[in-house]
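Lab channel / #folding
Pinned by the channel admin:
"Please post every new chain as: sequence first, then the structure tokens as a reply. Keep commentary short and put observations after the output so the thread stays searchable."

First post following the new format, from NK:
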Amino acid sequence: MSNHHLTDDFLRLPYEKLAELALTEARRLGASYADFRFERLRRQSIRLRDAHAETNIEDVEIGYCVRLLIDGAWGFAGSSDLDPAAVKATIKRAERVANASRPLLKERVELAPEPTYVDTFISDYDINPFSISLKDKIEHLSTLADIAQQADNIDHTSFDVDQVLENKFYANLEGSAITQQRIRVQGNLQATSIDRQTGRFESIRTNAAPAGRGWERFVSQYDYAGEISQLPSLLAAKHKAQSITPGRYDLVIDPTNLFLTIHESVGHATELDRALGYEANYAGTSFATIDNLDKLQYGSAAMTVTGDRTTPNGLATIGYDDEGVKAQKWDIIKIGRLVGYQLNRQMAPKLGLKQSNGCAFSDSFVHAPLQRMPNVSLAANTKDVTTDDLIAGVDNGIYIIGDNSWSIDMQRYNFQFTGQQFYRIKNGRLDGQLKDVAYQANTLEFWNSLVEVGGMSTYVLGGAFNCGKGQPGQVAPVSHGSPAALFKQINVLNTVAEANAA
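Reply from TO:
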């Protein structure tokens, strides 16, 4: 946990007084359960074009919401009006929602029990990005971008940086009162090179994952300068790269690419609301239905995947979720077998479980919490297996680095992924860049073809700021740890040939 304190501007807000008022009113209305959530969300997005500042967008969102259970029905309402009279009006709106929804219920809402907590959690970071001036940020980012911009074969660069400071106060009728502060950042530079003879352009970007860190991510914790300095030579080689011949290949997939495959084919597929059919309209349900629990051979014995809300510097790392459940770690897939799901307090009893594993999250005070992904990660090998070791075991294959476009069906089953960089593997060695590569499989075929994972020396915590779900739509930050991994005989497409055929 960080040594930092809650920011003064948040401490000055009247969240504790408003919570007491809201919960007292909820009790008076006969709620069997009620919670109050106060949020202050501060965001800044900076974009540089060709090493010069192009846009800077800053906003602050402040408000609160109340959630009630009255006679087994949910009521919810939120407001940005901090006047005590507005709090009472918000409670009344939530009561009306509960009364209106009750006749439509097929079953009463029952919540898994959870101990009460009075606690403060502050995420682990060194430098609050909102303590750094915009001028200093732009100067530093421009210096980094200029490394690529000055190269002879780089025509354009763009550098996009996002920073978020999230404060939440949660209290419920059960007695919990939890204050939390999280900081997260993301930023990558993309470089574009144009072949003057053919007019063809190629682009490549850095592979820095978003992280639960502060401004130190850009100045010391990640080697942006070193990676950016390699982009010109990588782009020169990409222009000369051979187009892939379609077929089946062994794949060594770098964690900078594999994190996204984990997210789509494992993370979303093991959300219990999808498996139960509750979540369907936004990106579908899941093939991994609850009759498969403890039975389905999801992958090979080399595959163990955990859900974890405690991962150091993870985007989904938190002290407590938005239902007051303490952060924890658990198995989702163990030695290839499906053994767990992601839950909230309402869904845990449906699996006969006594407690939620803390996966409720809302991206704003105007939204009710949904079951959202924790940090979902593929375990590394206990042996010191390097990426070179994995490559050495391949006679005819491809090494894939970085994420790019992707698609997956509404059951989280059939999918296709591309990447940033592709290298031919021939007789255990890298043999030049390739292009136009996409790998295609279904979830069970793919993960059961996993032969070996790398050790911790290959492990990277990837992730995304903007995992989408729900109606109205919400976004959630989530990390996925992964080692490099070797998959046997995966179908590979030529994306240009496929596009021309279409």
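NK: The radius of gyration is 24 Å.
TO: also worth noting, The chain has eleven helices and 25 strands.
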